[in-house]
Design brief:
Number of domains of chain B: 3
CATH topology of the largest domain in chain A: TIM Barrel
Mean pLDDT of chain A: 91
Number of strands of chain A: 11
CATH architecture of the largest domain in chain A: Alpha-Beta Barrel
Number of strands of chain B: 16
Mean pLDDT of chain B: 89
Shape of chain B: globular
InterPro entries (chain B): Glycyl_radical_YjjI-like
Helix content of chain A: 25-40%
Catalytic activity (chain A): glycyl-[protein] + reduced [flavodoxin] + S-adenosyl-L-methionine = glycin-2-yl radical-[protein] + semiquinone [flavodoxin] + 5'-deoxyadenosine + L-methionine + H(+)
Largest sheet of chain A: 9 strands, mixed
Distance between the termini of chain B: 55 Å
Number of domains of chain A: 2
Organism (chain B): Lacrimispora celerecrescens
Family (chain A): Belongs to the organic radical-activating enzymes family.
Oligomer: heterodimer
Low-confidence stretches of chain B: none
Strand content of chain A: 15-25%
Low-confidence stretches of chain A: 212-219
Strand content of chain B: 5-15%
Bound molecules: iron/sulfur cluster
Order of helices and strands of chain A: EEEEHEHEHEHEHHEHEHE
Protein name (chain B): YjjI family glycine radical enzyme
Chain lengths: ~290, ~500
């Protein structure tokens, strides 16, 4: 089974417990306004726009397919910036066994692997195959997901997944829709399911600068306090079993209406943490 | 005489540094060692380097007193009884340290400091203990003005160890260096993680592979720049073979391996034996020092460290192909291993005098370099700025060469500060590296004021002062400042996020 792989980080210290290899798949089922790697959202449609703009001549077109010559590429990322389609020409379709062969070189330095994206939930069969191989080698297998694919419908994948890191981007369904273009009932369903079966590793909240959310209603993106209270109420019996990660929004890599948006202050982040403590979360981290 | 006047009138030496420099100049006015012509040749080319140890050895280079014994028995010469409480043990140790000589005149080894203190913490609250330990640590940093000084922790978790780690993070001291002896079957993960976390704030402690060192000679300590030595003994001397300077006179690979290198090794071995002979037979050190007469050290626990430096450059010179370099090419690494094998065979066969504790052989040591080295990489390390893209490849390479060095061989990694959020990840790296045979790893954060130079720590802020020509407290700031510039350490690859 193949998947479109955007990149692999052999040694990551920010994608779950311990040292892990992180695999980033290409393609996402939502489009967040604050996405900080928008070039992972869609698959290349072969429009060819990036090809002529590559300063190193690493790209060429063969029919509708872009060919990327990794040996010539200087990783300047210009292609990604000019792509009008939120895609990247530097993506490889890889078999699970080939991805595994790359990852296995990192043993004994890693304790597990994490599949992130894009959205990992778009490649359930590929990941099932990859996780089976990794699990047999004694590595822990994590998913990093936006929660918009219903995990209860993928029992085989869940059987080989140790834990999931779940984004909860907004609690109010209209706000969620405005931010991502999708409905968040599946996210809530996943939150419940994962907490109950003990597979929730952490819930991640991207925190925006609170000031702008008191502005006119179309600008009122996300009420973080609402998200924290919502999650706490929804999975109240399990609050000690997973981490809450409060992620400070930063505009690196962001494109579109939020690209100049300021980060929340440390003070605002601390206030959110206080609220989380009051709501009963045990392990809270601000990053 | 001009040199002496230069010392006397220097503007960037403290009074204390002048006294030590003057003593060194006096020692060097003697010629008591017998050195053959051929050895002189290698010393002139710099292929054999005596690290400026002085012309008439009158104390061992590194001394590792048995402090446990001293604390248990008291010390007659210093007129001190065995300490009975925390105040007494801290005072006892500070006094004792003051009387332990070394090549730099400062003690290079302060003991398994956690274990020395732990028994005296009974009935003392954390708060009280912290206050006292803090004063103790500050005293050490400000009076042992020499970054080569070293103390050890672990492998067991102790309350004293936890308190010291907490204080070090806060104090940001360069002295003493700390090393945690780590054994995954003894050291709890949480304690090792605390140590690694601390190291991303103050570059201390470094981590030593306890499993690989615990049987080298029984109880061991780590002193100075990662010298693994027997407790109750130490190292008489450390000379080093500077491989690229030797390779400069080679007439090809074969001649280097079969003629030049063996000849130089034998000159260096003879020279080291001559130093040991003078120290043991003529200097009267072991007859007169109270450390020796009271059994805190014993002559038969000393050995001599045979230093190797610049394997990378030597290999690259002999390869003569910029496409095939050490750390990046199999053929080059094979040649490097061949070179090391010749050195190891020599050390394993020739007799080192008065070296019973190491089976009467020289003990190989991956020498970390000195301030005046230009274009010579520490021991068997891969040159700064040339490190393999992947840290994993780097560590695998290290493991292949660490095996040759019983008395210490280390890697230093400049780490991305985000590692602070995930010390378990750093521990995974340590566990992986140690399982492959890496002997010693240290980390510092790429944004930290304290920087590990070749083994010792120096503050960037102090180096700035030295560059401006001011006198600075610690002598290692001079060495570090020059080394940081000459070896371009700011280019060390930052590990963590790729
Ligand atoms: S990153 Fe993109 S634009 Fe830059 S060299 Fe590589 S392929 Fe070309
Ligand atoms: S990567 Fe983007 S710009 Fe390049 S061909 Fe594909 S869709 Fe077009």
């Amino acid at each position: 089974m193949k998947a479109a792989i955007n990149k692999m980080i052999p040694l990551s210290v920010v994608d779950g417990p311990g040292c892990r290899t992180a695999v980033f798949v290409q393609g996402c089922n939502i489009a967040c306004a604050y996405c900080h790697n928008p070039e992972t959202q869609r698959l290349c449609n072969g429009c060819g726009i990036c090809v002529s703009q590559c300063p190193a001549g690493a790209l060429s077109l063969s029919g509708k397919n872009v060919i990327w010559d990794e040996a010539v590429c200087t990783q300047c990322d210009h292609c990604i910036r000019v792509c009008p389609n939120y895609a990247s020409p530097k993506v490889r379709w890889m078999e699970a066994v080939d991805v595994w062969e790359q990852i296995s070189k990192n043993i004994p330095f890693i304790q597990g692997i994490t599949v992130s994206g894009g959205e990992c939930g778009l490649y359930p069969e590929f990941i099932t195959e990859l996780f089976t191989l990794a699990g047999n080698a004694g590595l822990s297998c994590f998913l990093d997901s936006n929660g918009c694919v219903d995990f209860t419908k993928h029992p085989k994948l869940m059987a080989v997944t140790d834990k999931v890191m779940l984004d909860v981007k907004a609690w109010d369904s209209q706000v969620f829709h405005r931010l991502t273009g999708k409905d968040n009932s599946v996210v809530k369903k996943n939150l419940n399911y994962l907490a109950k079966v003990g597979k929730l590793y952490e819930v991640r909240l991207v925190c925006l600068d609170g000031e702008s959310s008191s502005g006119p209603s179309e600008d009122k993106e996300v009420d973080m306090e609402d998200v924290i209270r919502g999650v706490a109420a929804e999975v109240n019996p399990y609050l000690e079993d997973f981490k809450l990660k409060l992620i400070t929004f930063r505009n690196y890599g962001v494109r579109g209406k939020m690209e100049n948006r300021k980060s929340p202050t440390q003070n605002q982040m601390e206030k959110l943490k206080e609220l989380a403590v009051q709501c009963g979360f045990k392990e809270i981290q601000i990053v | 005489m001009n040199k002496i006047l230069d010392i006397v009138t220097s503007k960037n030496l403290t009074y204390e540094q002048k006294v030590v420099a003057l003593a060194h100049a006096a020692e060097n006015s003697l010629e008591v060692l017998s050195i053959p012509e051929r050895t002189h040749h290698y010393m002139d080319t710099g292929a054999i380097c005596d690290l400026d140890e002085g012309h008439a050895p009158y104390r061992p280079r590194y001394i590792m007193p048995d402090y446990e014994k001293a604390v248990k028995n008291g010390c007659e010469f210093l007129q001190m009884e065995a300490p009975k409480d925390l105040d007494e043990v801290l005072q006892y140790l500070t006094i004792l340290y003051r009387h332990v000589p070394s090549i730099t005149s400062y003690p290079v080894y302060l003991g398994n400091i956690d274990k020395l203190i732990e028994p005296f913490l009974n009935g003392v609250t954390d708060e009280e203990a912290e206050k006292k330990l803090k004063l103790f640590l500050i005293y050490l940093d400000r009076t042992i003005t020499d970054g080569f000084c070293h103390a050890n922790l672990g492998p067991e978790e102790t309350r004293a160890g936890r308190l010291i780690l907490k204080l070090e993070k806060e104090l940001q001291n360069a002295v003493p260096n700390l090393t945690l002896k780590y054994d995954k079957d003894i050291t709890p993960d949480s304690y090792a993680e605390l140590a690694l976390y601390t190291s991303l704030y103050c570059a201390n402690p470094a981590i030593c592979n306890h499993k690989m060192h615990k049987d080298t000679y029984g109880d061991y300590g780590i002193s100075s720049c990662y010298n693994i030595l027997p407790i109750g003994g130490g190292s008489y001397t450390l000379a080093r073979i500077v491989l690229p300077r030797l390779a400069a006179e080679a007439k090809g690979r074969e001649q280097f391996l079969t003629e030049l290198l063996p000849d130089c090794l034998s000159c260096m071995g003879d020279y080291m034996n001559e130093r040991i002979r003078f120290l043991v037979e003529e200097s009267n050190f072991f007859e007169t020092s109270f450390l020796s007469t009271e059994g805190l050290i014993s002559r038969d626990k000393f050995l001599a460290m045979f230093g190797v430096v610049g394997l990378a450059e030597c290999t690259n010179m002999l390869m003569g192909d910029p496409q095939k370099t050490y750390g990046h090419n199999e053929e080059a690494d094979d040649l490097a291993e061949q070179i090391m094998q010749v050195i190891a065979d020599y050390a394993g066969s020739v007799k080192a005098v008065y070296s019973e504790v190491f089976d009467n052989h020289f003990a190989l040591h991956a020498q970390v370099g000195i301030d005046s080295d230009h274009g010579i990489t520490s021991g068997v390390r891969i040159p700064v700025g040339m490190e393999p893209e992947l840290m994993y490849d780097h560590l695998r390479h290290s493991a292949r060469f660490h095996k040759f060095f019983p008395t210490g061989c280390a890697d230093i990694f400049s780490f991305d500060p985000t590692g602070r959020n995930n010390p378990a990840a750093m521990l995974d790296i340590v566990k992986g590296a140690f399982s492959l045979g890496d002997k010693y790893i240290s980390f510092y954060a790429s944004d930290s004021d304290l920087v590990r130079i070749t083994g010792y720590l120096v503050k960037r802020s102090e180096m700035e002062k030295y560059y401006e020509g001011e006198a600075v407290l610690q002598n290692t700031v001079h060495l570090g400042g020059d080394n940081y510039r000459n070896a371009h350490l700011e280019n060390r690859k930052v590990r963590g996020l790729q």
